[in-house]
Amino acid sequence: MAKTTGTALALILALAAAPLMAQTTEEAPKTEEAAPADATSTEYPTGQDVGAPADGTGSTYTAGTFESWEQRCVRTESGADPCQLYLLLKDQSGNSVAEFTMFNLPQGSEGPAVAGANFVAPLETLLPAGMTMQIDTAKSKLYPFTLCTQVGCIARIGFTAEEVTALKSGGNAVITIVPFVAPKEKVELTMSLKGFTAGYDAVVAANDKADAAAAANGGAAAPAEGAAAPAEPAPAP
């Protein structure tokens, strides 16, 4: 399985010191005085990313780690930030292959699902085969891919309360996809559930707080699903 890597180029500027000139009897012209020793750092702003709000609103950050799981959140003006649970899936060789993010749905949502998830597979995945997920020894479930973007193809998953409980009490879940170039083969990705319970409960608490803050301001529920943009997974073999 190919593994994507990035390259970076560093540009080094060499500065040569000018030779010292002999002192003359004439007084050298005065130049602009250097900043006083007691100058504060506010006089030397470090700048900010172009297009980014000064307070960081809309930026993502990791609020906590739970074994291999991460609680990723997006900053909001209210300070009550929506979050989701993130896991990077690797193959047996340690190559990054896919991503899995999960979040609770707002209370009162229609349908049997109480939680949602996005699974991002490589672009070279055979889409008609869908993806299957098996929690421990339970029966596998098949999910279709919804769309593809530059970062990969996404399958949207809904979990019932019973399935969330199974994830919390489980040991591992196995996700299976089929490579486009090898339709007779299967790629199995083991998703460790160690740390899942603590991570998911932290996400639920953060999202409930964000929903309450949004409701108090007369807005809609906080978009936990968009709490963090997925990184680009490596292509399938």
Write a concise synopsis of the structure shown:
With 237 residues, the protein is α+β, with helices and mostly antiparallel strands.
3D structure, described in words:
With 237 residues, the chain is an alpha+beta fold. It has one domain: Invasion associated locus B (IalB) protein (Immunoglobulin-like, Sandwich), CATH 2.60.40.1880. It contains 2 helices and 11 strands; from the N terminus they run E-E-E-E-E-E-E-E-E-H-E-E-H. The chain has a 7-stranded antiparallel sheet with strand order 1-2-3-4-5-9-8. The termini are close together. Mean pLDDT is 79; it is low at 1-35 and 227-232.
The mean pLDDT is 79
Major β-sheet annotation = 7 strands, antiparallel
CATH superfamily: Invasion associated locus B (IalB) protein
Structural class given helices, strands, pairing? alpha+beta
Q: State Rg.
A: 26 Å
Q: What order do the SSEs take from the amino end to the carboxyl end, as H and E?
A: EEEEEEEEEHEEH
Number of distinct helices: 2
What percentage of amino acids are in beta strands?
25-35%
Number of strands: 11
Q: Do you know the CATH topology?
A: Immunoglobulin-like
**C-alpha end-to-end distance:** 4 Å
For the largest beta sheet, what order do the strands appear in spatially? 1-2-3-4-5-9-8
What is the share of helical residues? 10-25%
